[in-house]
Amino acid sequence: MDDLFATHDALAVGELVKARKIGVRELVDGSIAHLRKLNRSLNAITDFYDGALLDKSVAAAGKGPFQGVPFVVKQLMADCAGTPTTLGSKFFAKQPVAAADSAAVARMRRAGLVIVGRSNTSEFGLAPTTEPAFGGATVNPWRKDLSPGGSSGGSAAVVAARGLPMAHATDGGGSIRIPAALCGLFGLKPSRGRVSLAPIGETLAGAGAQHCVSISVRDSAALLDALAGGEPGDPYRAPSADGTFLDATRRPPGRLRVAFMHKPVGGAPLDPVLVDAVEQTAKLLASLGHHVEEAAPDYDAAALGAAFGIVMSANTFTNIQIRAGGRVPGPDDLEPVTRLYAERGRGFSANDYIRAVQTFHRTGRALGAFLTGYDVLLSPTIARTSLPLGAVRMDGSLEQYEEALAPMIPFTAVCNATGVPAMSVPLAWTADGLPIGLHFIGRFGAEEMLFSLAAQLERAQPWRERRPPL
User: Fold this and answer.
1) How far is 275 from 11, CA to CA, in rounded Å?
2) Region label for 193, one of left (φ > 0), alpha (ψ between -120 and 50) or beta (otherwise)
């Protein structure tokens, strides 16, 4: 069981279950035992299911493509019946358990997944690392002094260590793609409205999304097939795909027009290692028959950053109020930066918030116009090659936090603000063997194209055999 996920992705394991070559309970129990051992080193899973809760989870799993496959759900943006959703915060650790699954979690179960636990996250998903005061830091399996990124770092660390073939992740500014990049995984953020957030309507003015991190491209595609689609009353809905996302991984993408950029819009030059990673990927794309040229969109990056700060902090304040149900956080209930962020959010006016949302939309117009001339925009996923534990502090000032945040999101956050799909693909490595994610942005609703391209890259330059040492 310890090596099963090193050699099989989730779809392959589901086929073993369907062929009765392995029993569901044997698979689940063996996986949990292995995960508990890994977790002693990684601290990636906050809660393991056992007893009646695990029995119910096994019984609730359907006969879909992932029949019997163990899965963990991040402690953010998704409720699992019978467990609390802590948001990585001490303040919500004793919340009543969820009475029902979120819509996406119900779809996960129908697809055959067996939820066996919840994965670690930064408090409220604010930090691009996973080092919450409540629960402690998650370790990157590539090197124990490094963070797996965040805020989906718990899920990414487990999958990178081959404890599971894929795991739930959410993304409000890069939180699927950042940990995918730092852990050597595939991570796709879907288009706005592709996966319903029901029962909530939206998060972060439409910037929030959920999906997974995975080893294989096809697992990600098949899971999106299972999760995609709206629920009654959803405020957004992505256009329907022409076929299935899994089918898209089986066909060539055709000759794509690819733009690549060496530095963030309005930002400073990158580390030469990242520039070389982009250039080598551009050469790989050209060798596969795509048209590749250097080009970048033009939008006000500073204004977008300011707008994100307003939206994030205002949502932080409001969500604490809503979820607390009248309770007031005590002096030790929230991390210092979270408290400062919420206090700042309380001070913004309706005018401030509307102007921030308008900045999101104005940026979307600019990026959309740019993407009429290109199918894909290529860059690094983040503007650094690794993230040491402690580099992003939530116990200091807002200025320290924002300075540490800046190099983590210059390529990712624009996709959340504008609602377009984007993916991180592990196509490069540092001299000392750490993964580098390459970031690909597509037009709104273009997940099929991205999956087709990702599968082509996976075949041309496979990454599954590269495993971390921890």
Assistant:
1) 35
2) left
- Tell how strand 435-441 and strand 422-429 pair up: antiparallel
Kindly report the CA angle at 359 between 355 and 361, in degrees rounded to 5? Answer: 115
Identify how many contiguous H helices and E strands the chain contains and give both numbers: 16, 11
Residue 336 and residue 191: Cα distance in Å, rounded?
Answer: 32
| Annotation marks residue 94 as catalytic | no
Question: What does the alpha-carbon distance between residue 382 and residue 83 come to, in Å, rounded to a whole number?
Answer: 33
**In this prediction, what percent of the chain has a pLDDT beyond 90?**
98
Residues paired with residue 428 on neighbouring β-strands, in sequence order: 436
Q: What is residue 326's predicted lDDT score, i.e. its pLDDT?
A: 87
Q: Is 175 a catalytic residue?
A: yes
How many angstroms separate the CA atoms of 447 and 189, rounded?
Answer: 9
Of 31, 57, 74, 196, which one is the catalytic site residue? 74
Which residue among the candidates 57, 147, 151, 424 is catalytic per the annotation? 151
Residue 274 CB neighbours (<10 A): 23
What do you get for the CA distance between the two ends of the chain, in Å?
17
Give catalytic status of residue 122 as yes or no.
no
Q: How far is CA 285 from CA 138, 148, 437, 454, 461, in A?
A: 34, 27, 15, 11, 11
Going by C-alpha positions, the residue among 113, 32, 35 that lies closest to residue 69 is 113
- CA atoms in the 13 A half-sphere facing the CB of 271: 13
For residues 94 and 138, is the Cβ–Cβ distance under 8 A?
Answer: no
The pair of structure tokens assigned to 439 is 């970031």
Per-residue exposure over 423-444, b if at least 16 CB sit within 10 Å of its own CB, e if not = bbbbbbbeeeebbbbbbbbbbb
CATH superfamily assigned to domain 4-255+378-460: Amidase signature (AS) domain (3.90.1300.10)
Q: Residue 215: how many CA atoms within 13 Å on its side-chain side?
A: 24
Q: pLDDT under 50 in the chain at which residues?
A: none
- Boundaries of every domain in the chain: 4-255+378-460
Question: What is the predicted pLDDT for the residue at 1?
Answer: 66
Q: Which of 175, 196, 214, 424 is catalytic?
A: 175
270/274 Cα distance (integer angstroms): 6
